[in-house]
Write a structure and sequence with these properties.
With 103 residues, this protein is mostly helical. It has a domain of 55 residues. Helix content is 58%, strand content 0%. It is built from five helices and no strands. The longest helix has 20 residues.
Amino acid sequence: MSRDDEDFPVSEPGATPHYHDTDCSEFMLRIYEYMDGEMGPEEQLRFQAHIRECRPCLRQHDLDQTVKGLIRRVTPRAVAPESLRSAIVARITTIRMDPGKPT
């Protein structure tokens, strides 16, 4: 069974291709969703397995975590006013109760 190297990129010059269940392009597109804990448990496990096996994606993950941490430290934290939070929760509740109703 042959595999096309284009589908399984080489992580380092001279290295052998790496094969895993999650495509690197999918990982890169969804990296912030993963980092922010916005994935379901199965997807989270699949992405964790991917970065254990894929050095380029692990490096990108680590870089993005570092940048995110630096931004968090130098940016004042904005807190939404309680009135805005209440309005959003009320709107979400309305939509959940009657999803077919136009917004």
